Amino acid sequence: MSSLTEFDREVLSVLMSSGGWNASARSRLAQLAKRYGVSAAGLSRVAAGLADAARDGRLQAQMAGQLRTDGRTGRQGRRAGTSDALPLGSAPGAMTASVVAVPSSAGISRGDAILLGIVAGLLLLSIALTVTLGLMVWTAIDQRRDPMRDRAAPTAAPDGPSLARDGAPIGSGFNGASASATATPGATAPSLPRPAPTTPGAGASAARPPTVPVSYPKVPTFRATLASLDLDQALANARSAAFALETLVAEAPDDRSTIRAWIGAQESVGRTWPRLDAVTRRAILERSVAFVRRIEDAEFAEACIEPLRAAIAAPPDSVGAIWRGAWSAGLIGSLLSEPGLAPEVVAVIARSRLAPADGSGDAFDRFAAAWLDQQCGPITALVQKGSPQEDFDRFEAWLEAQSRVRSGDEAQGAWLRAIDALLQRPLRFDLPGTAPDLLGRMLAQLDWSAAGTGSGALAKRFEQWMNDSAMPSPRLWALGSIVQQAGLAPWFTGRMIVGERATTAERGEALAQIVSALGPTTVEMDAFARLPREMVARWDRLASLVMTGGESAGPVVVPGAAGAAPRAGAAAPSLSDSALRDAALLLRLIEVETAGAMLRAGRSTDASQRLAELESAASKPLLAGLGPGGRSLPIPAEPSGDGLMARRLDEVKVAAERVDAIRRRRTESAPDLGPIDAARLVREAYAGEPNAVRLTAQGVIVDSFASGRRVAQELVDQFALSGGGDPALARFVERLTGERLPPHTHPTFRATALAALLRHRLRLAEHAWHGVDALTARSALSAAERLDIEGGSSEAYRDAAEPTAAIESLADLLRARAGSRIASQPFPDSLDRLDRRNDARRALADDAPQRLVAALWHAFEMELYLAAADRPLMRPSLAKVLDEAQQEASIARSVLEQAGAVQRARVRLMGTRLAHDSGGGA
Amino acid sequence: MSRVLAGRGAVDARSARRLAVRAAACAILASAVFAAAASQSRDLDARLEVLSPSNPEAYLLLAEEIQAMARTDEERQRARELYGLAGALDPQRFGASAALGQASLADTAAQRGRLVRLAVALSQDAVPRQTVREVPQAAMRFAQLLAAYRRGDGVRARELIARPEVQALVDANGAAFEGGAAGFRNAVAALRDKPLEQEARRMEWMFMEQALLATGGGMASDLLRSGGEPLAACDPLDPGPELGVDAAKATWRGGRWVEAP
């Protein structure tokens, strides 16, 4: 009996405490087998051994002995990946043998009846175990067909089938769906969920029973201590470096030894900077920057920056590498924000291609934080690749550095991203080891208080995990178990733990519990959730109105303005009319989207004002007229006395008299001439003889008829049909048009001069094309506002002729933001692929309108990406918006219509986000 | 008389024999040509049939070979398809080459331009480019034509519109004219010293002239130059549609491209 294993004893214990073989015993035995890693066959052999022992009449002694030693059951039994690791399995009937070795002490007279009963019971047990085995095998086969289960299969998990991995029967799983398991939660005493504190949210739904958490021998919240003699020495060196840098600043930075000393100081500080106090760190940074400020030579700058670049590019495989990399990134950020550097030095630093993280803090903090964010993936990828100590040290170093550059919501975001990165790894978090300890360490960093500043981000992240079908339930099971067992969140109950094999619906239920518990805070803390619903509804009505068609957006120009009326007799809209309509719609759509962005940014007052402006668009036209810049041009008065000058010029032959006849026109009050005099005056200006006549005619045109349409028309037509050119003519055209021309002998002179004369003529009349340019410029202003709302610098784009540059800048800004997000299922595609598509579109774009479409697509895709990353639940709605955009853009007949289609999709996307943020969306 | 008749009969018989020989020779020659063509076609079919989607390079090489010896539209079309399939099957390696290959087979300048842009888009180091336009002499002549028309100078207008480079621009900008390019030609043919009175039409033309003569000039000028052509959609990871092929149908069987069996 001395060879009886702990497993054997626990089996007996379970049978005894369950009152023999029943549903409860079956479930608990399965759990026990899973915990010990005993296979189904092993469990069967135990049952067979027990049956033999009972038949031999020795079981009573075992049971009596078991009762005496009941308290000795431990949890350190051998883990049996295969059944032969156990004595019972190593030789079938080993239990029997061990039992046989103990002489029976039972009296036949008292025990006959009991023995018979037990034998009968054990026979039944054998049959039941056989049935259970059958169920286990069936479940194992079924699980291999389950893709989510397949994805959950860990790379670090033990090989070979085991109950823990494959064989848990439907009725005995840890999942809350198991009636038998939940009916006797006390069966596995160490993994009992503690009584859940009641919260309003959690208490509201009691339909879902609490999930039995993962049974860890010790709650995995291990925290490594980064302390060593080396570290102490490095800290001392760093403090010395602070003094050394003070001396270096005073020295000439063009000396190689000085630069080497500067690099050495950075190396020393980099190894331990998170341990330095803020004042020392600040002083070191300032001195380091001051040194570089004095460098004027690119070569010396390169010598300084290259080691920093190398530290940034080094893999984060040690504490030193992580801290040096973050320090180098932060220092480069500080240098980039330093205004006093020489341009050559700036060019060298800019080659580092670093981008700051969003948020508060100085340049050092934001660049270091961005670099640390990027290391999340590589650091988590190294887990379980080396020793556990190395894993713990790397995470501690990362945490400590992040804690120095981030706090509050930003820190909460960083911890959540790190947890997400960890959960994405194929690690076993539901078995004791490094992985759950690291997860627990990160979870312990989070602010779990329902009234905490980070509860909004917490709820969002839980939403993302629960809705991510690629996130295996066992990982969430482990996560919930750690949160609950470590007591991180008082409100986190057993019902919020996702079961090991939770279905989508069950994950949804757990999420609802969590969101419910965090609910009031989420609404309070989420800036978007403060959106007043009536404002969103107002925006929605306006957006619908604009999107239904250009006419709903109001007239383009003041009714009745010259040139505003549609062309009489025009059978079909001309290219200019179509373009005008499309440009007007595009402007309205950009304005509506900008108003929506104001709403989302919490700028309610601005948004309200903008909405009011847009709502009154029906009575307020977009443009005053179709003149250049959208202005209205006066209708020219018809000049009188046409032909008088021409006749006079025909009559007089003396040059002085002809000059005089032309000069008299200077006194004309009308800005234009009749057709006969206009043609004659222009002819004299181009080809009049002698020279004095020509120059006088040119002067009169510039001084008195520069705004005359007929004169301008004659200038165009006669120039086109005449030949030649001379310096005087070139000067005349330059004075009239205000445009610089090439020398009259240049091959392009005539084409350039004619184009200038055409532009001069076109400026004097209203036309739809002027409206297109004016509306496009207005779009640029609105797009710049949109960029401004997102935190971009919009000054350079406000007066631009086109919105393209502002939209490209917005897209780049969003792209940088997207780069810092860790999306488990990127939508609409991975960033790499989206970048390639964007590059392709930009390469295909041949002119300004096509570049506008490319920029709009880029911005739209980045907005989709961020929306999906922030709100995975929105993904179906986003997919619909994308689908509609692709369809509409593909059937667009013109490039401006295509731009409108993409911008319409951006408005739809804004609507979806507003509805979601205000609590009205799915 | 009978000799004469006999002689005539002999002459007729000789002529008939000569004709028969010639006809036979022609028939043999035609058969040989036909057989050669058929044999070439069979050879091409055989070479197409051995192509496998697992080896996109072979499509590209065969396309180049066929293009070099292509005499018929069908052969040129086959070369286009092969280029397209090579690009669609391995966009990363052959996308740009395929688009350039198709560009060299393009029928129109517009098509060629689109394919060259596509090649840039598909190349790995695609960078946005700023188009540098040259103002062609044709644009100046086109402006002269419109100026002549505006002034009612029929003789000058007819002289200008007869130039091929001007005709090409009239065709390209047909939408600006009432009745299209053909309508404008008719109007020029009938022009008899009557200036164009419609201010709106004059303005429309002058915007167009200005856009053709100058570079840049803003959104309106670009729209006028391109006619508002939409941005071509191109997924650099799946350029099949833009190259005019379906990458799933890259196996040649029974004289057409089908899905791999």
* Biggest sheet layout of chain B: 2 strands, antiparallel
Largest sheet of chain A: none
Please report the two chains with the greatest interface, counting residues with C-beta closer than 8 angstroms to the partner's C-beta. Answer: A-B, 59 and 56 residues
Could you state the order of secondary-structure elements of chain B as H and E? HHHHHHHHHHHHEE
**Terminal CA distance of chain B:** 78 Å
The shape of chain B is flat
Q: What portion of the residues of chain A fall into strands of 2 or more residues?
A: under 5%
Strand order of the largest sheet of chain B: 1-2
The total count of strands of chain A amounts to 0
Low-pLDDT regions of chain A:
69-108, 139-206, 520-529, 561-570
Count of helical stretches of chain A: 40
Mean pLDDT of chain A: 76
Strand content of chain B: under 5%
- Oligomeric state of the chains present here: heterodimer
Distance between the termini of chain A: 63 Å
Low-confidence stretches of chain B: 1-5, 126-132
Count every beta strand of chain B, where a strand is a DSSP E run of 2 or more residues. 2
Estimate percent helicity of chain B.
55-70%
Tell me the Rg of chain B in angstroms.
29 Å
